[in-house]
Design goal:
The complex is a heterodimer of chains A (289) and B (261).
Chain A: H1 5-46, H2 52-55, E1 59-60, E2 65-66, H3 69-100, H4 103-117, H5 121-140, H6 147-171, H7 175-183, H8 188-199, H9 201-217, H10 220-226, H11 243-250, H12 262-287
Antiparallel strand pairs in A: 1-2
Chain B: H1 3-14, E1 26-32, H2 37-50, E2 54-61, H3 62-71, E3 77-80, E4 90-94, E5 98-104, E6 112-113, H4 115-122, E7 140-144, H5 149-158, E8 167-170, H6 173-182, E9 186-191, E10 200-201, E11 203-204, E12 218-219, E13 222-226, H7 231-242
Classes of the chains: A mainly alpha (289), B alpha/beta (261).
Chain lengths: 289, 261
């Protein structure tokens, strides 16, 4: 196609600007990663590369104890709790939206989930303080501030994201396939379980892993309800701290320039690597035919 | 997109730079203890009216964060309620003293504690309030994060809780009060002589707090500034150290030693 001279000049500049923006983003990501790697490496070197830093549970930065194993365990537990609560509900909402709801209900559901997904995490934290923490205290006893409360708040936060993604995936199954499956004698349930969910599995895996990534990175809402305990494991009904909440808590006493600031870099790097691995795994699932 | 669109966007981008308002010629950064931020904000607002050519940036970060920011040249004034050794390079100026209160959930049935009883609670030797004449309910400790001035004051007097004592950590006075008011049997501490709704403010050794009077738990907020700081920084430091607004923020004035610049 022939370009108008003026438009061609503008388009060339547009292409350069867009390229520069992409380069800037890539540079930012690499720079942040590099800063974390250097900070974490310096910190680990200062600790003699001891594995105890990653596996131990003695955290008292003001007294020079920097073992982050407990935060890694709590992060895994809170994420697992959140996903265990989100998965059945989210999948149920997606199946309802894709196969049960009429077009008006489906449009309303999408609108509702989109609005719900946009609720800021601090608002979810307030909701957690007002509803989830007292409920956990009333039902299970204990202080209420707990890994379970954090997992429940996270589950509610992840529900719209996971449901929307899963709904998109289920919507992509061609109508012809449903007709063919039913024509071969499959019941509605068999059609859903044996055909639709099976062919959607790679996409659902991507939706699931995206939700896991968000769960691992969430900070403020979790910090408001988890209780922040750094000594010992008190069970899912007791308080704890995840990697992100502890970074938030101790940023003030380990500021940039502090000799031990590197431990926060290490905690952030662990999260970053975990999220990179999850994302890579999710994309591999997505690429599969 | 055509050239007209580009020019409109450029115009919007450049518009603020062409504004007629005078631009501040200098910036002072104040950082540190979050408990002092409301007071500092109020003083800075008043000081800025008399010094329109100087912009003041106020940020929290906690006492330790403010101190490090000052040492690393990222802040001009550090606010702290934890004492640091200023050495030869920095000057220290007291701001006043702030009472630290023990706040208790009403279900605990406790309104007075001796220092000895507080120590036993903090050490985990008292696990239920009925051991101290209160209700039949478990003790729940609500504490501030490491580096908090209130935590420093309390632990300096009664010691740190051992690891086996379950603690709920909160990041602000407001969060502590809310948690204590909603958690049956909870006890925590807050800094500042202000109304704290929904909780019982505990008398200590039978004495209620009277403004400025004897009290076993006082934090001593102070500010630090570099000896090499410019006149504007020293001027703001003097305002922060000696403003008459302290009482409105629960800070009791103390005698001010000479403060040069």
């Amino acid at each position: 196609m022939e370009r108008h001279a003026c438009n061609g000049w503008i388009e060339r500049w547009q292409a350069r600007l867009l390229g520069a923006a992409t380069l800037l983003v890539a540079t930012l990501v690499l720079t942040i990663t590099l800063i974390l790697v250097v900070g974490a490496a310096k910190f680990l070197q200062s600790r003699g590369w001891r594995i105890q830093v990653l596996l131990g549970a003695h955290w008292n930065p003001l007294a020079g104890h920097f073992e982050i194993g407990l935060f890694i365990v709590d992060t895994i537990i809170v994420t697992a709790l959140a996903m265990a609560l989100t998965l059945p509900f989210g999948l149920g909402v997606a199946v309802f939206g894709a196969y049960v709801a009429g077009w008006r209900e489906r449009a309303a559901l999408r609108w509702l989930l989109t609005i719900f997904a946009a609720v800021p995490s601090v608002a979810m934290g307030w909701w957690g303080l007002a509803v989830v923490v007292p409920s956990v205290r009333r039902i299970f006893g204990g202080p209420g501030f707990s890994l379970l409360a954090a997992g429940a708040v996270l589950a509610v936060m992840l529900l719209p994201t996971f449901s929307l993604l899963a709904l998109e995936v289920l919507d992509k199954v061609p109508e012809d396939w449903h007709q063919a499956s039913l024509a071969l004698g499959a019941s509605e349930d068999q059609n859903l379980l044996q055909m639709a969910l099976k062919v959607s599995l790679p996409g659902l895996k991507t939706a699931f892993l995206s939700a896991v990534a968000r769960a691992m990175g969430e900070t403020v809402a979790v910090q408001m309800v988890i209780g922040g305990a750094v000594y010992g494991f008190h069970g899912v009904l007791g308080p704890g701290a995840t990697l992100t909440t502890q970074i938030l808590t101790d940023m003030a006493i380990l500021p940039l320039g502090h000799p031990a600031h590197g431990v926060l870099d290490l905690m952030a790097l662990i999260l970053l690597v975990a999220l990179m691995l999850l994302t890579t795994w999710a994309q591999r699932g997505d690429d599969r035919p | 997109m055509n050239i007209r669109h580009l020019l409109v966007i450029l115009g919007f981008l450049l518009y603020p730079a062409a504004g007629a308002a005078p631009r501040p010629s200098a910036t002072i950064t104040v950082a540190g203890a979050t408990s002092l931020l409301p007071y500092a904000r109020s003083v800075i607002q008043q000081w800025s009216e008399a010094h329109p050519s100087t912009r003041v940036a106020l940020t929290g970060g906690g006492s330790v964060g403010g101190w490090y920011a000052l040492r690393l040249g990222r802040a001009d004034i550090a606010l702290s309620d934890i004492p640091f050794s200023p050495g030869a390079a920095f000057a220290e100026r007291p701001i006043g003293k702030m009472p630290v209160f023990l706040v208790v959930n009403s279900a605990a049935g406790i309104s007075n504690l001796t220092m000895g009883a507080i120590r036993r609670v903090w050490r985990g030797q008292v696990r239920r309030w009925d051991q101290l004449g209160g209700g039949d309910i478990a003790v729940r400790l609500v504490v501030r994060q490491g580096g908090s001035g209130a935590r420093h004051v309390v632990e300096a007097r009664v010691g740190a809780p051992p690891p086996d004592v379950l603690q709920i950590v909160q990041l602000s006075n407001g969060a502590v009060v809310r948690t204590v008011s909603e958690t049956p049997g909870a006890i925590g501490y807050v800094e500042g002589d202000r109304p704290w709704p929904g909780v019982v403010i505990c008398r200590i050794d039978g004495r209620p707090y009277r403004r400025g009077g004897p009290w076993p738990l006082y934090a001593l907020p102070r500010l630090y500034v570099s000896h090499a700081a410019g006149p504007a920084v020293w001027s703001l430091s003097r305002a922060l150290a000696s403003s008459q607004r302290k009482m409105a923020f629960g800070i009791v004035p103390v005698a001010q030693p000479g403060f040069g610049g």
